[in-house]
Amino acid sequence: MTAPSETRGPSSVASHPVLTVENLSIDYLVDPVVHAVQDVSLELRRGEVLGLAGESGCGKSTLAYGIVRLLKPPAAITAGRAVFHSREGTDIDWGRLGPEELRATRWDKISMVFQGAMNSLNPVITVREQLEDVFVTHRPEMSKEERRRRCGDLLERVGVDRGRLRAFPHELSGGMRQRVMIAMALALEPQVMIMDEPTTALDVVVQREILREITRLRDELGFAVVFITHDLPLLLEISDRIAVMRGGRIVETGAAADLYRDPQHEYTRRLLASFPSLTGDRGGFIRGDVDERLLAQDAVRTEAAPSAPTTEGRVS
């Protein structure tokens, strides 16, 4: 994985937005009312990875479900909207879509890898049947042979042998099940993919493999990604820009390198400081090859600790 550097960020992706979230608010209509998302505005640029970071319960997943209108009662959108900007030049206000339009558009334009995706597969249906169901629903004109060929191609695209199409979910490792879910989200070649904690419960080696696959597929296919996690160091490695969320609000947004080097909000600084060091320096948590410019301008600024006493002529 690469650390954030000057060559990454908004300048490395198209400046045209593919998704705009405008003043979106979502409440849970219980007693008392919970204001889960409050006046959130975001812009996702075509081809970029936008990281959404924040502690558990801050509203990240609720925001994602609200964007694609997958909220269930008592959750309700109380203000704002999400607008998808198609590469064909049309704008789609998701709040104005009827049930059938929403069903046809949701997986075709914007897909989602859900939190706990490894357990989202049906345990009594083969991988092939579950992948084919996407094409049966959204591409009914496709022949059976074409569907099966496409399913095999999808698995190979995410690094899984097509022979696994005959497998049931319990016969796959956690990493393979996660790859199947990513393949399912890629099936209709969407322009936006929302990934909600896609590496949760995976060991660090498999996590790294999955992240490499996501980055490779983004570069190959050109889709934009909203990557949701509480793991800010992970986002610093893969994101072009990062939005930090707390208490239902976006408190800071910026290029990954800028946010690491010079966080503006106190909560961002505390979030950065909460991760253990892998380099021996407080805040030096970036995995992989670290850009020296980042180490020289560490985001976690602390007063230098007094040097330990030394003894002249001491032999180590």
Oligomer: single chain
Q: Can you tell me the CATH superfamily of the domain at 16-117 and 190-294?
A: P-loop containing nucleotide triphosphate hydrolases
The secondary-structure class comes to alpha/beta
Report the sheet with the most strands, covering strand number, pairing sense and barrel closure: 6 strands, mixed
Molecular structure report:
The chain has a domain at 16-117 and 190-294: Rossmann fold (3-Layer(aba) Sandwich), CATH 3.40.50.300. It is built from 10 helices and 10 strands. The chain has helices at residues 60-67, 99-109, 127-138, 144-157, 174-186, 204-221, 232-238, 256-261, 266-273, 292-296, and strands at residues 17-28, 34-45, 49-53, 75-85, 91-93, 110-113, 192-196, 224-229, 241-246, 249-255. Strands 6-7-8-3-9-10 form a 6-stranded mixed beta sheet, with helices on both faces. The chain has a 4-stranded antiparallel beta sheet with strand order 2-1-4-5, covered by helices on one side. Helix 3 packs across helix 4. The model is unreliable at 5-12, 286-291 and 297-316 (pLDDT under 50).
Question: What is the gist of this entry?
Answer:
The protein has 316 residues and is α/β, with parallel strands linked by helices. 32% of the residues lie in helices and 22% in strands.
